[in-house]
Amino acid sequence: MSSGALFDYGDSLRSIGMVLVAPPHRRRGLARAVMDRCLSMAGRRPTMLIATAMGEPLYVDLGFAEVGRVARMASDSAAAGERLPSISTADVHAVLELDRMACGADRSALLRSLLARAAASAVVRRASGAIRAFGIALRQRDQLVVAPLIAPNTSDAVTLFLSLAGRCAGPVRLDVPTRQEAFLSALAALGLTQGPSAPIMLLGAGSLPGRREQIYAIASRGFG
Residue 178 CB: number of other CB atoms within 10 A? Predict the structure, then answer.
């Protein structure tokens, strides 16, 4: 009848996702009960979520505040770009560290799970050979979902996106923080259409940890 999930990213952050109530059982307090349970498990640690329009009033009532937004970008197809090297086994530690710095949290279990299911992955290297940017893409039904994209600048993010999208024909989508205006404009120029944005909400802190300017696509609206 109802469900929800709490994702543990270490002491600096928790994420709540997939809070669902079957339509016949809505307006009975089940979503609040799920949230109360998740928050009791999170304790006093900062907790984030990405809200739906239906859930946002409840989250505000529970004390969550908006700290950003994400917009869904999608296209029936995407242009191919330079084919970048995939993430190798030897690269995993560096990828996990880049993600930890960008998100300010330990998402190693999540990233390893995404890599195990990846339809494609890509890295951008420095002249020294060290990885400076990476991206992962998953196949969900008939769509390629690019998630996440971590990069130091818009140019690298676009290069990653084109490499990932070009490896699989068909529809592609990704969820982009709206602060990444240059990247959103670049995606629009490539033919992607922007859908409605959704609020990123946080409880227990004034701002999200990490170098958030390096996040060009989130892992998912469920995982954060």
Answer: 14
- Residue 38, token pair as written in the block: 């998740």
Per-residue confidence (pLDDT) for residue 49, from 0 to 100: 96
Length of the chain: 224
**Using CA atoms, how far apart are residues 115 and 121, in angstroms rounded to an integer?**
8
In the chain, where are the structural domains located?
Answer: 2-68, 71-196+209-217
Q: What is the pLDDT of residues 64-74, one digit of tens each?
A: 999 999 999 99
- The pLDDT confidence band at residue 36, using thresholds 50, 70 and 90, is confident
Q: Which structure tokens are listed for 171?
A: 């529809």
What element of type H or E holds 58? helix 56-61
Q: Which two tokens stand for residue 149?
A: 């994209």
Residue 224 — pLDDT band, cuts 50, 70, 90? confident
The CA distance from 7 to 223, in Å, is 7
* CATH value of 2-68 in 3.30.565.10, 3.40.630.30, 1.10.580.10, 1.20.1260.10: 3.40.630.30
Q: CA nearest 207: which of 185, 176, 179, 182?
A: 179
pTM > 0.85: yes
Q: How remote is the C-alpha of 196 from its chain's centroid?
A: 16
Q: How far apart are CA 53 and CA 152, in angstroms?
A: 31
